[in-house]
Amino acid sequence: MTWFESMTPGSVKGTVLETDDLDEEVARLRSLGVEIAGDVQDAPWGRFATFDDPDGNGLVLQQTTQQTAQQTARQTAQLTATGSPRYRGPMDSHDWDERYQGTDLVWTATPNQFLVSEVEGLTPGTAVDLACGEGRNSVWLAEQGWAVTGVDFSAVGLAKGAKLAEARGVDVTWVEASVADWVAPLGGVDLVVVCYLQLPEPQRTAALTKAADAVAPGGMLLVIAHDKDNLIRGVGGPQDPAALYAAPEVVDVAVAAGLHVDRAGQVLRSVVTDAGTREAVDTLVRASRMTGRPGELK
Ligand SMILES: C[S@@+](CC[C@H](N)C(=O)[O-])C[C@H]1O[C@@H](n2cnc3c(N)ncnc32)[C@H](O)[C@@H]1O
Predict the structure, then answer these.
(1) What is the pTM of this model?
(2) In this structure, which residue's CA is closest to atom 14 in ligand 1?
(3) Using a 6 Å CB cutoff, which residues line ligand 1?
(4) Are 158 and 284 in a shared domain?
């Protein structure tokens, strides 16, 4: 009987891959953009993590107890020597193109729940969805009547967005560009959305500054991102603290751009994982550019 056959049915499933350094392998997979479902988990025989291959097949990566002990000692020594885990840098457009290969959507066609709750019911105008990925949020905005531009540096992601828009019968303008190179239209945009653009500094502040500066008078900035606390009490998202957000930092950028902060903090999002429904911790900041008298939006 193999180890996984001895587990409670349904507790872990999928093809089993053996590794002698689970944390290292998980970090490597995550740096390639692979979504590991939940945290590394303990089992009587060692530790394991689950994830899907690009075709959506469930895989289990396992490390047995003896190796776990050796690895923990090695990692402790490494951490003591370096002071922090290694950071491999953000994914570039080629990495994202690779991740978006295949017909399945990586992020589903469903819009982000906080985008929906913050924007639903607003009078539509112009909108830009920075780092729009496969376009789920751009398409939803277009369906609400917004004149949307989706910006992303992944041509493959944008092509999937265009397909989704066509299937839904809405128009979205797709722009292949790095956020750093994107130029806001003169006069600004009524709604600027930044959803899970997990960049390290200084790129993060540069991107958020560009987003905040692009908000037209009377317009709104909405930033939604994986929060730093997600590492300790949430699931999914990048596991690199350098790529994670904290609401006060986003607030600083918004205020520096002359915006009024309407809402800022952490929000919890339910995520269905192989181990059941878990919560992810997101940063949410909503800010507006006021016009007219102080305290009054256009
Ligand atoms: C986690 S996905 C989020 C996609 C989308 N906002 C959503 O919520 O479904 C992050 C996206 O950011 C894009 N991205 C990352 N860095 C970028 C950059 N510097 N300029 C433009 N797009 C970038 C990636 O291509 C990817 O599509």
Answers:
(1) 0.73
(2) 131
(3) 96, 107, 112, 131-133, 136-137, 152-154, 157, 178-180, 195-197, 199
(4) yes
**Residue 97 phi/psi, 5° resolution?**
-55, -45
Structural domain includes residue 230: yes
For residue 45, the Cα-to-chain-centroid distance in whole angstroms is 32
Whether residues 150 and 196 share a domain: the answer is yes
Task: Flag whether 231 is in a domain.
Answer: yes
With tokens 């729940």, the residue in question is 113
Range of the domain at 71: 3-86
**Rounded Cα gap, residues 138 and 144, in angstroms:** 10
Give the chain's domain count.
Answer: 2
Distance 133 CA to ligand 1 centre (A): 5
What DSSP element (H or E) covers 277? Answer: strand 276-288
Per-residue pLDDT band for 106 (boundaries 50, 70, 90) equals confident
**What pLDDT, in 10s, does the model give residues 221-264?**
999 999 999 999 999 899 899 999 999 999 999 999 999 999 99
Span from the CA of 196 to the centroid of ligand 1 (angstroms): 7
Model confidence at 72, pLDDT cuts 50, 70, 90, reads very low
